[in-house]
Amino acid sequence: MTKFQEKAQILDRQELAAGIYRLTLHAPLVAGGAHPGQFVMVRTDDSYDPLLRRPFSIHQVSAGGDLQLLFKVVGQGTGCLARLGPGSRVDLLGPLGRGFRLQREDPVCLVGGGMGIAPLYFLGKRLLQHARLPEFDPVLLGAASQQELALLADDFFGLGYDVRTATDDGSLGHHGFVTDLLDQVLPRVSRVYVCGPYPMMRIAAAKCLAAGVECEVSLETHMACGLGACLGCTVQAPDGYAHVCVQGPVFEAGEVAWQ
Amino acid sequence: MTGQYDDIDLRVRIGPLRLRNPVLTASGTFGYGREFADLVNLHRLGGVVTKGISLAPRPGNPPPRIVETACGMLNAIGLENVGVEEFIRRKMVFLRTAGTRVIVNILGDSVDDYARLAERLTGVEGIDALEVNISCPNVRKGGVAFGTVPEMAAAVTGAVRAATDLPLIVKLSPNVTDIGRMAAVVEEAGADAVSLINTLIGMAIDCRTRRPRLANVIGGLSGPAIKPVALRMVWQVARTVSIPVIGIGGISRAEDALEFLIAGASAIQVGTANFYQPAAAEEIITGIAAFLHEQGEHSVRDIIGSLQVEAG
Ligand SMILES: Cc1cc2nc3c(=O)[nH]c(=O)nc-3n(C[C@H](O)[C@H](O)[C@H](O)COP(=O)(O)OP(=O)(O)OC[C@H]3O[C@@H](n4cnc5c(N)ncnc54)[C@H](O)[C@@H]3O)c2cc1C
Ligand SMILES: Cc1cc2nc3c(=O)[nH]c(=O)nc-3n(C[C@H](O)[C@H](O)[C@H](O)COP(=O)(O)O)c2cc1C
Ligand code: FES
Predict the structure, then answer these.
(1) Quick check: A230 and B29 CB within 8 A?
(2) A258 and chain B: CB distance < 8 Å anywhere?
(3) Counting atoms of ligand 2 from 1, which one is nearest the CA of B199?
(4) Residues B45 and B25 sit within 8 Å (Cβ to Cβ)
(5) pTM of the full structure
(6) Helix pair A146-158, A117-127: axis angle to 10 deg
(7) What does the alpha-carbon distance between residue B76 and residue B63 come to, in Å, rounded to a whole number?
(8) pLDDT tens, position by position, A181-234
(9) Which ipTM value was assigned to this complex?
(10) Are B183 and B237 in contact (CB under 8 A)?
């Protein structure tokens, strides 16, 4: 799959909740070849501090060549990105990595925690391109609070999915972990796609394994290149090391040596 | 070659090795070339230096292996590589067709490892030169890096020299007191050129967890943060030895490369910059040509070592 370097113009910036942004970029080259679960490496300017590009999942793409990112400000790089408004340009490398495998027929389940919801929306949209009944596909979404989750959950309702929510403070849906919601749905799905904090993915992977359900997870590691060159993005695999930027970020749960 | 600057001669010689321009990509920052093939016109580069190759494959260090620091990064990759046989069988197939010079970076645990690697790689089609990474621990000498003890650096260089007739570049470690002495010693032992610098040893700590940010605790610092140190060392070495010097360290744009050339480097390598700007090496080639054109120079060779220092 061809990778591109593209100067992308920011078309829109939406602040969904405090510190959480959705950016719409015009990036026809990157968007054109993108597959759900893949990511981009973003550089906001020519400065040396921060130096490295930042990895972000592709949140969705449009037929017109637009691409969205969904991100939370957690430090310097995400702070720089959040300050850019319409008209600014960012430099993208992408689409990168190996994405989700698309299941065409049987019911599937999407499980997203926090910013891990970002790639699942692209997946949710792409799954609908194959004839399916989304009301039979559970989408389990978790976040800190109702403010962080409400708008994102609405997007999946809009696609017709069976959306269920969980929040840490109980302000929306189940009061507790999103993985608590998995037990009821596991008996009737054939594959689970998970993206979120590491402990959440570990629990989801263990539950799927116990239930004999296929599970894919999307991992995060620090990355310098995103291209398979620096060998910095290592995770422990059952038989050695794996490199998240090329062998992942999406892995079968069994390809990860959970810590 | 450089479009509007076709009248500018960018060719340089590194001992017996002829390059179409002085811009190479540094070991460990450009994979085996193919990783960048979608993004970079490899045939425009002066050459590609491969990820360091050892006799047997190496798994590398446990994660986390990298951490970003002010204007730089620390890495403790642990010399992960596919091993020399897999390299020849798989990676050379692509590199041979890339239309650029291929310099294979080698590393070992013992003097004998280096000699065997050099022997194995000699005669393999498509390999234009060897670059010997001597910043690795000598397992037989309690893990002291070859490149920090003059006798050990000379022993490795001599053993590789005896094992190959390929152009031989020795890559110096900056973690020494007297870089000029190290360069002189490897020149004496038969190196055709020296390249420098490898990474500077550093560390970073997460004060909340009170743990090192790298699993290996310490790692190698690279990127723009190290450029002044690298430039100083290149200048010192260029004054000391008569073999060509290849400058490395924090080079991101044409002006950086020009500083190294003026300090006495005959070529340069682009390292960490490939990560944040894959087009860096190509932009530097064009930028050097543009600078020469603007300065009324016809050949890049005329600016090598052209530093003007007031006699004081
Ligand atoms: C494949 C992939 C997809 C991602 N998708 C998203 C997304 O869609 N939305 C989103 O909000 N975040 C996403 N992240 C996490 C995002 O990359 C980090 O939040 C971001 O790099 C933090 O940068 P910073 O400068 O703001 O933080 P700092 O903590 O100041 O960053 C310091 C260094 O650590 C690295 N770093 C810090 N946290 C992370 C992390 N969690 N993952 C990787 N590197 C990190 C930074 O890149 C930088 O090099 C993704 C990460 C990966 C690996
Ligand atoms: C991730 C990474 C891996 C590296 N691997 C090697 C290697 O295998 N062999 C080697 O001789 N140098 C290696 N280096 C050192 C670089 O080739 C170069 O000497 C150094 O990074 C300084 O240049 P820079 O500041 O332009 O990156 C590595 C550097 C980095 C950042
Ligand atoms: S981020 Fe560089 S190899 Fe994966």
Answers:
(1) yes
(2) no
(3) 20
(4) yes
(5) 0.97
(6) 10
(7) 9
(8) 999 999 999 999 999 999 999 999 999 999 999 999 999 999 999 999 999 999
(9) 0.95
(10) yes
